[in-house]
Amino acid sequence: MTHFLWLTLLRAALAGGCITAVLPIQAQTVDVASAEKLIEDSKCGKCHSLDKQKDGPSFKKTAAKYKGKADAEAKLVTHMTTAPTVEIDGVKEEHTKIKSKDEAAIKNLARYILSR
Ligand code: HEC
Fold first, then answer.
1. What does the pLDDT average to over 54-64?
2. Which of 9, 21, 35, 67 makes an SS bond possible with 112, Cβ 3.0 to 4.6 Å?
3. Ligand 1 centroid to 90 CA: how many Å?
4. Would you state the pLDDT for residue 19?
5. What is the whole-number distance in angstroms between the Cα of residue 114 and the centre of ligand 1?
6. Span 95-110, pLDDT tens digits
7. 95 touches ligand 1 (CB under 6 Å)
């Protein structure tokens, strides 16, 4: 009985803190529709798909590669915005840049890819 009382008190004490604790989690959610539209607008689908290897790795493969890495989102943002040199069938070319300057939308896309 006393245990139950303590739990109730503890829960009441934590309730206030929960409101602030939820905010950063919400900031990490993925807007799938926005991400998929950006992929379409930027024609990324020419070389990438969700789970099939095309000229570029599938998003699932990229998600697996970066799993558990803290800097994954930043790495992908850099990859998508700076046109690094990639090699396709032995030919070096500039990677396609994302067609957006909206940082929030680009980060959302990075999280979308990482959560596949
Ligand atoms: C002409 C083909 C082509 C197009 C178009 C293309 N990519 Fe890529 N992408 C590649 C190749 C090839 C790689 C592999 C690079 C490597 O591993 O060296 C790659 C790698 C990636 C990676 C993984 C990077 C990493 O660090 O592992 C991501 C994410 C990615 N592309 C996203 C995109 C997005 C978003 C778009 C649309 C703006 C896009 N790509 C358009 C060919 C393409």
1. 98
2. 35
3. 15
4. 53
5. 13
6. 999 999 999 999 999 9
7. yes
pLDDT at 50 over 80: yes
What is the Å distance from ligand 1's center to 57 Cα?
Answer: 7
Q: Is the CB of 86 under 6 A from ligand 1?
A: yes
> Domains in the chain, start-ordered, CATH in brackets?
30-114 (1.10.760.10)
Show the 3-state SS of the chain: CHHHHHHHHHHHHHHHHHHHHHHHHHHCCCCHHHHHHHHHHCCHHHCCCCCCCCCCCCHHHHHHHHCCCCCHHHHHHHHHHCCCEEEECCEEEECCCCCCCCHHHHHHHHHHHHCC
**How many A from CA of 76 to the centre of ligand 1?**
9
Ligand 1 pocket: which of 42, 43, 47 to mutate (most atoms within 8 A of CB): 47
